[in-house]
Every structure is written in C-alpha cells, then in structure tokens.
Design brief:
With 209 residues, this protein is of the alpha/beta class. The chain contains 6 helices and 9 strands; from the N terminus they run E-E-E-H-E-E-H-H-H-E-H-E-H-E-E. The protein has a 6-stranded mixed β-sheet, sandwiched between helices. It has a 3-stranded antiparallel β-sheet with strand order 2-1-4, covered by helices on one side. The two termini are 21 Å apart. It binds adenosine-5'-triphosphate (ATP).
C-alpha cells in the first residue's frame, strides 16, 4: 500500500495554513512531522484522517483504511474502566469472544494487567497516555496517526511511553505518522523525518534516519 499526500493546500478563511505539502509515507514505518507551533501540523493530520477538508491536493492510500488516532491528551472515557475503554473501540471489530483475550494480551505486554479495572482518574497521566496508545494499537488499524502523544508527559513518563511505543511498533506492522516539535523525539522514533517551515507552511527538508 502506498500512502501519499500530494500538494495539499488548506485555507482557514484568508489564512493559508498549508501551502502545497507533498509527503510519501513509508508503509510499516514511522514518519515524524516536525514544525513550529501553529504551522498546521494538526490540520495536516486531520486532513489525512479525513476529519478536515482540504482546498486542493490529493490524499492517496488512506481512504478505506482503518486508522487509529492518538490525540495530544488522552481521550479515555472517564466513566469506563481500562478494560471498558479498550473494549469500547474493539466492539464490532472482532468477535466478542476475542475481545477480552485481546485486552489481556495488550495489557500484559505493557505490564498494566493489574490496572484492568481502574478508572482513568485513578491512573497517572503517563498511565493514561499508555492506555490511549495501547488502545490505538489494539484497534485493528493499519495506520496510526499520533499528534504529539508525549507532549503532556513529564520526562520520566515520556521515556517509559516512548519505549513502550517502540515495543508496540516492533510487535505489529503499522504505518505511523507522528507529529512532534521535539527533534530528539523525532530522531529516536522516526524512520523518516519531515521538517515543515512556517508562513507559508511547506516541506523544508526530509531526513531518512
Ligand atoms: N478550525 C479552525 N479555524 C480557523 N483557524 C484554525 C482552525 N484550526 C486551526 N486554525 C489555525 O490554523 C493554524 C494551524 O493550526 P494547527 O493546530 O493545525 O497547527 P499546529 O502546527 O498543529 O499547532 P501546535 O504545534 O501549536 O499544536 C493556526 O494559526 C490556527 O490558529
């Protein structure tokens, strides 16, 4: 499967946010997108995910794909426990009988089995973000979109969650597109790094790691 964004242009009113962004995404690899705050990274991810319309350009390969999206802050449902939060996205995606086993397998992979019946408010920020990432991986998607998933974490938790992300990427083939503003994070996790400029937002450089 080829995943491409070709010459994407996006305006919000008179503001030209994206000025012809072209990127090839390598299948089953991680592409990190780096750029200054407000340059349009989230907008670009939303266009790929089909959540935001573009003014011109072409998105190839993402249509009819199962996409998992991890947002900057965890989007766990507060009144559901860990098991229910993961089970919720798996419902209808696999036989009911497989759901519990899938949840157990993923929780075990990250040593969070004992938190299965905890509610989000009973978990640390790092644990909640790990569950969000875990949920994205448990969902049978082939594309994983992540918008600064480590942003809200302190330095210790960030390292834990980044290691965990690498473990999950190694365990399962996914094409991952991750936005970050942290160069070190991009070099640690990315196979390809795309650097965007600001005003107008274009691709400045593509680095193969
Ligand atoms: N729905 C919207 N309507 C109007 N303007 C918007 C909308 N969403 C974003 N913008 C503007 O578009 C620009 C890009 O926003 P976007 O959130 O995509 O940038 P970003 O690079 O992800 O920012 P950050 O790094 O701070 O998260 C900003 O100037 C923002 O104010």
């Amino acid at each position: 499967m080829k995943y491409k964004a070709i010459d994407i242009v996006k305006y919000y009113g008179d503001l030209k946010v994206l000025d012809g962004i072209t990127i090839d995404f390598q299948p089953n690899k991680t592409t990190c997108i780096l750029g200054p705050s407000g340059c349009g990274k989230t907008t670009f991810l939303n266009i790929i995910a089909g959540l935001t319309d573009m003014d011109s350009g072409e998105i190839i390969g993402f249509e009819n794909q199962h996409i998992s999206y991890v947002f900057q802050e965890d989007r766990l449902i507060p009144w559901k426990n860990v098991k229910e939060n993961i089970g919720f996205v798996l419902k209808g995606k696999m036989p009911e009988s497989k759901i519990e086993a899938t949840i157990n397998r993923y929780l075990k992979l990250v040593n969070l089995e004992e938190y299965k019946y905890y509610y989000p408010k009973e978990l640390s920020g790092g644990m909640r973000q790990r569950i969000s990432i875990l949920r994205a991986f448990a969902y049978p998607s082939n594309v994983l979109i992540m918008d600064e998933p480590f942003k809200s974490l302190d330095i210790n938790n960030k390292q834990i969650v980044m290691d965990f992300f690498k473990e999950l990427m190694a365990a399962k083939n996914r094409t991952c597109i991750m936005v970050t503003h942290d160069m070190e994070e991009a070099f640690t996790l990315g196979d390809r790094i795309v650097i965007l400029t600001d005003k107008p937002t274009r691709v400045k450089e593509i680095i193969e790691v």
